[in-house]
Specification:
Alpha-Beta Plaits; 3-stranded antiparallel beta sheet; 4 helices; two-stranded antiparallel ribbon; alpha+beta; about 40% strand
């Protein structure tokens, strides 16, 4: 399951995308996030509980500001680079 955390408004699209099928729940992205926007949570995926990375609720509606300092448009944000399974990517399209 692919989850888009963020929003689209008049200023552009700002999303952190996490593919829970690829996420191993190792937590490396959580450790590397300088803004503490990521967390590990247990979700029901394919009828099983699985621990995966997610953007915390408090950061979801302000992801543009939370993650902007990590240069997400380059897809070289610390969380993206820390993910060995390539489960995280950024969609960053300012208008």
């Amino acid at each position: 399951m692919i989850t888009h955390y963020g929003y689209c408004d008049g200023s552009g699209e700002y999303y952190i995308v996490i593919d829970s099928d690829k996420c191993s729940g190792c937590g490396k992205c959580v450790e590397e996030c300088p803004q503490t926007a990521l967390k590990l949570e247990t979700e029901l995926i394919d009828l099983e509980d699985k621990t995966v990375a997610a953007v915390s609720e408090e950061h979801r509606k302000k992801i543009k500001y939370t993650c902007g300092s990590c240069n997400p448009e380059s897809n070289k944000a610390p969380c993206v680079l820390a993910c060995n399974s390539k489960a995280i990517k950024c969609i960053w399209n300012p208008r």
